[in-house]
Amino acid sequence: MKRLFGLLSILALAILAFKPADDKTVSNLSNDAGWVELINGKDLTGWKATENPSTWSVTDGLFQADGKRSHLFYEGEYLKDGFKNFELEVQVKTFKLANTGIYFHTKYQETGWPDTGLEIQVNNTHIGEGDYIELKKMASLYGVRNLYKTFGKDGEWMTVKARVESNRVQVWLNGMKTVDYLQPEKTFSAIRRLGEGTFCLQGHDTLSKMQYKSFRVRRLPDDARSNLAAPTLGAWHDSLVALQSQQFAFIDLNPKTTLSAKELANYYYTTGINVSLVKSPASAKELAAAKNLPLFTGIKVTAANQATAKASTADYIIGESNDLKSAKALLRGKKINIWSDKGRTLNNPKTAELLDMAKQNNIAIEIDNVSNSPSLEIIKIAKAKGCKFTFAGLVPASNMQKSMFVMRAIKEANLTYKDLYIPKW
How far is it, in rounded angstroms, from Cα 269 to Cα 123? Predict the structure, then answer.
């Protein structure tokens, strides 16, 4: 047991210590030499559109996509043998419901979604098509490091910057780092890997209107190295990756931790688990520490202080109860978005009544990975009633190493990604 505890402690410390020593921001790169502009402001010279070329036009010097699916691949004079290591700076504007993306390390194909390369997601308000709900938001590394909270705005010019160097991808949105991904030596076959190739802009569908004003790139040496190795994570991370590929959003909206805002962001960069900074109503001003970090924010209340919480100060409000009386007060209080049952109140004859109240008031039920609560049977009952769920106990990594209860809950209660609550989605 001592040996196991020691290994878990080392793992947790290794993840928290992941502060890239060669963390090169691109915020000051605009004045450096070597940049080339791939949009000439006149026409589509150097770019080739697929499937529905009429989707793309040049309007007031801007690349504009407005129409059926079409991908615009770069084939211009600067492509040469392809881009491997590079820095990128793109100016993009989306309109309501628009979904687009910036592909790299890809290659031209005549039809369909690009089969090769990785994509920087560009989506603030797109909701999906048909039965599919698109959860991955602006400046995610699509399918690899997903953000479920949007930090961009439709109708405004956004600056997307990226640095790709050997096994590392960093992405910034308007100066905020949204991705810092270190590619492991081995990944699932479904996870796309870094390589080399060209760039591609996505025209997604007839509802997706967007404009690109600038697309600047600067090559880095092909033999450039990040000098960093991806941290070794346990079997839990393999399960997380597999479920994430099925659209499951892993977000800890009630982390039981003393980690700072920066440390929480670092945990997301390392593991792909989205995290929230949570404070009491009295400490709500401390949520300012999450500014310019890819974090959710939450207010944690009890039945006694829920009236003091202001919804406008955070992305959501979570209520914790320790007995039946306080649980009912929270569920009836019209304040909370998430209910965290710390008193195991759900394990009593009032279970059905409490779950009905949660459903009627659109309150999600917290599934705690550490305390393994509520029970799988109650989770099944709650799902049958149409309740939504959230996760807790996903931080730090040692919690995940010790328990995979959330994975069991998903499988045995037959949860789908649509059963999960995402603040302000």
Answer: 19
Q: How far apart are CA 400 and CA 406, in angstroms?
A: 9
189 in any annotated domain: yes
Q: Over the stretch 367-412, which tens digit does the pLDDT of each residue have?
A: 999 999 999 999 999 999 999 999 999 999 999 999 999 999 999 9
Contacts of 416 (CB under 8 A, 6+ apart): none
For residue 227, being part of any structural domain is answered with: no
- For residue 79, being part of any structural domain is answered with yes
Residue 348 confidence (pLDDT): 81
Report how many domains make up the chain: 2
pLDDT level of residue 124 (50, 70, 90 thresholds): very high
Amino acid letter for position 388: K
250 and 180 in a single domain? The answer is: no
- Single out the residue of 14, 47, 228, 245 nearest to residue 135, CA to CA: 245
Q: In DSSP terms, which residues pair with 339 in a beta bridge?
A: 319, 365
pLDDT of residue 13 exceeding 50, the answer is no
- Give dist(CA 75, CA 265) in Å, integer: 37
Is 262 a domain residue? yes
- CB atoms under 10 Å from CB of 140, counted, come to 25
pLDDT for the residue 91: 98
Where a domain ends, among 177, 192, 219? 219
Query: What are the structure tokens assigned to 61, written together?
Result: 């010097």
Q: What is the pLDDT of residue 1?
A: 40
CA–CA distance, 315 with 317 (Å, rounded to integer): 7
> Which contiguous run of DSSP H or E holds residue 355?
helix 351-360
98 token code pair: 């628009």
Cα(156)–Cα(287) distance, integer angstroms:
25
Domain that holds residue 340: 235-419
pLDDT band, residue 156 (cuts 50/70/90): very high
Judge if 392 and 250 occupy the same domain: yes
Does the structure show a pLDDT above 70 at 11? no
CA distances from 400 to 15, 94, 187, 240, 280 (A): 13, 37, 19, 10, 25
Residues 160 and 82 in one domain: yes
Contact 100, 71 (CB under 8 A): no
* Rounded CA separation 317/335 (Å): 7
* Cα–Cα distance, 179 to 147 (Å, whole number): 9
Which of 195, 219, 243 is the C-terminal boundary of a domain?
219
List the structure tokens of 219. Answer: 């090559």
Collapse the DSSP code of 213 into the 3-class scheme (helix H, G, I; strand E, B; otherwise coil) and give the result: strand
Which CATH number goes with the domain that contains 324? 3.20.20.140
